[in-house]
Structure formats: structure tokens, C-alpha cells
Amino acid sequence: MTDQQQYPESPNRWTPEGAPPDFPAPAGPGGYFPYPPPRKPPLRRSVKALIAVLVVLVVAFGSATGVLLTREQLERPVERRPASSASSENPWSMLPSQEILPYKGEKTDFTLSIQKKSGTPLAADAVFTKVCPSVVGIVARLTDSDGEQSNSQATGILASTDGVILTNAHVVADSTEAEVVVILHDKRQFKAHILGIDRTTDLAALKISATGLTPAQFGDAAELKVGESVVAIGNADGLNYADSLTGGLVSALDRPIAGHSGNGMTYIQTDAAINPGNSGGPLCNLYGQVVGINSSKIVTSGYEGIGFSIPVSKSVDILNQLIRTGHVQGRVKLGITCRPISTYQAAAYGLQGGMELVSIAEDSAFEGTGVQKGDILYQLDGNPVTSIDDVDAVLQRHKPGDTVKAALYMPGQKRDRTVTITLKAEG
Q1: pTM
Q2: Contacting residues for 30 by C-beta, under 8 A, at least 6 apart
């Protein structure tokens, strides 16, 4: 996953009023979340919080140096559907009715490489004809901590003849435990194995048991120019509009995204339409080369045609590590899975926000601390935690073996607790 500051004597708390649309609703009485009576925050802290909010608003509207984005403004375009929309007898009922071929556990010695431009530019239809056989559909079945299932539909890119596939980590819910089916251009279906995921850069590598496939050719984003034409290919609205082509221009290069660039990654900005279901799909130059992996777009009212793609040439080393080892060397982990708490929960607990611990691995950094599932992580290394991006930003500044302090609220005991944890290496 995933400034040292002074720790406050007590947590900075406030009572939020709005509800982010993507946050899960509380389970209610008898459900997963306990709800103690709200604790009224001291007035002086509420005033400070209000001032902080006003400062953020002034900066957001008065900055002339670039676009500042909140988590709600930036959308990762993956098409998600509740399992209830599918037959209970067949959770994969959204798939075409064909046999799903199993994964047989083959290894691969594939290494991703980047090629320079060659030949002459192609028309958009020729690019589509060249690249489309390398574009795949991805359906992932996700199960949350309450046992509820949902399905996501997105896009992937064939990288090798033996079935290595590149996509976004969020397509598989940032989890190696997701069940994934890949649909090839010729409609064959395969159960996919997740070789590795990197939530920090939002990249993932998959593998299916197939041979003789048509891989994409990958180009160098450094050869792109602002104003150059590009096309995006993907499964808009999931499988409903598979192999959709959109076109546009390179709007900017090396674009950082506030709150999403703690990983040091910069992005290709394009006005080519990136719709739900396009996540993990290719952004192509007019030489028929994949130069980016489509990842996100701005969806805030008043913004149009601002999408972002991860440059493949900047992430080739990361992708090869995921393919070979399943993780990126030097990265640290907490050994937990977590999700943002709802606005209702934050108000009930007297928190500005936080991340609920959904699971804790045996080799977690929290091992031996007494921290339990359901506890709320709201501060890490002195920094507020309201999203997974906040966690990632902290972890990016550390190496395995570093110690940090984690502040948590324990709903079962209705109290705060701060623990010191030792960060562990991924893998």
C-alpha cells in the first residue's frame, strides 16, 4: 500500500455533514458496525476544523498553478454491479454462456519491453484493427468482509503470447483474492491467476492458460507530444459495449495528480473518452502501440475530457517485478485490508474519517499489538488517514524495518489507542 509531524495530545475531531457517494452504508443494528452515541467535539476543535475546510476551499478555487483534486472528484472507471443483479445459481451469469477454461499453474519467462516508433502513422480504424485482438474483457467477483458479493467489469491488455495480461489493481479490488475471468477477443473465457498487484501505482498482472495469443506492442510515452492524436480501446459499460473505440489528443504529459501521485508517478492526460469499464485498457498512439494503461478521470461537474493514463514505459520495471515475483521490491506493507468508514460512522465515533480494518494478516505490522478487525485507523505517522491514498502516501516515505505510530479508535471498547508498529517488506 501506501513529513513527520508532531502528534497532537488528542485526536482532531469534527462532525462531518456531507456523505461521500462511494462510501459504504452502515450495516445497521445487528450488522457489522457497532454504533456508540456520538461524542460532541470541543468547540475550539470544531472551529479549527472549519477554518481548515475554508482554507482548502480557498486553495481549491483560487489556485492558478493547476487542478487540485479530491478523492470524490477523481473516478477510477471500472463498472461494478451488485451480485444481486446476477442469478444466485450462477454468479458469473453476466458472462457469455461458454465454458470457462481453468488456470493450470504454468510459469512464464516473459519480460515486458518497450519499442520505439517505426513506420508511418495509421488511421484510427487501422489502429483499432491492429490492437483490438490484444484487448480483453475482465470480470472479477469480489467478496467483502460481510460475505456480500459484487462483480466488476473492466479491460485488460495481452502482453505475451502465453497469456500475461496487464490491467489496473483496482480492477481486481486491489486484492489477490479476487476471482477473475478473462474474455478474449475471440470470446474464449479463461479463469485468471493474479500474478501480482501494486496498489501504489494501481497496476496488476494476470495470467491465463493459453498459447498463441496476439500481444500488444508497447511504445515509449517519452515520444509523445502534447497535441498528438491517441485512441483508447476498452469495454465501455463493461461487456455491454465491448471493444469501444474513442479518440482524442494528448492534453498534457508528466501530469501529477494531487492526492494520487504520492507514488512519484506522473500521468498522460488525454481528452479521449474514458468510460466505466475502460479501466485497465490501452491508450494507443497512431503507430498501433500501447503507450498507457487507462486508469482514472475527473468527474466533477464543470470538468469535461480530463482522463489519465499510466505510462507503460515509466512503469515497465514495476510490471516486470509483478510478473516475476508478485510484488515490488523495497515496498513496505501493513498487512491489512481496509475500507473507508461512512460519514455516519465518522460522526458517531467523533472522527473526521478513517479506515476500518477488514482483515489482518498473520504477518501484519499490527501483529502482537492487540489491534482487531473492526478497529478504525485514523492517523498514521502523525498524518490523518481518511482514504487508502493517505495510507499509501505515508508508506511511500518509509522502508522495511521503520517504526511508525498508528492511532486507532476501538468501537468495541469506545476508546482511542495509539500503537507503535514495525513496517514489513512486501512479498
Answers
A1: 0.69
A2: none
Residues 172 and 202 in one domain: yes
Q: Which residues are catalytic?
A: 170, 202, 279
Q: Which residues contact 21 (CB under 8 A, 6 or more apart)?
A: 72
CB of 52 within 8 A of CB of 60?
no
**Domain span including residue 120:** 79-216+319-325
Q: What's 133's domain CATH number? A: 2.40.10.10
Question: Within 10 Å of residue 79's Cβ, how many Cβ atoms?
Answer: 24
Residue from 279, 281, 269 nearest 306 by CA: 269
CA 182, chain centre distance (Å): 19
Quote the radius of gyration of the chain (alpha carbons, Å).
Answer: 22
Tell me how far apart the terminal alpha carbons of the chain are, to the nearest angstrom. Answer: 12
Whole-number pLDDT of residue 142 = 74
Counting every residue written for the chain, the total comes to: 427
* Identity of the residue numbered 245: L
> To which H or E segment does residue 356 belong?
strand 355-360
pLDDT value, residue 93: 54
Q: In this structure, is residue 26 part of a structural domain?
A: yes
CA dist 6 and 133 (Å) reads: 54
Shortest CA distance to 360 belongs to which of 415, 406, 397, 329? 406
Same-domain status, 365 and 292:
no
Question: What's 16's DSSP letter?
Answer: -
DSSP string for 222-281: GG--TT-EEEEEEEETGGGEEEEEEEEEEEEEEE--TTT-TTS--EEEE-S---TT-TT-
Give Cα 310 to chain centroid, integer Å.
Answer: 12
Q: Which of 257, 281, 313 is the last residue of a domain?
A: 313
Give the model confidence (pLDDT) of 370-389 as tens digits. 999 999 999 999 999 998 77
Alpha carbon 28 to its chain centroid, in Å, reads: 28
By mean pLDDT, which of 112-121, 286-295, 347-356, 390-399 is the weakest?
A: 390-399
271-283 in b/e burial notation, b at 16+ Cβ within 10 A? bbbbbbbbbbbbb
Query: Any bridge partners for residue 180, and if so which?
Result: 140, 192
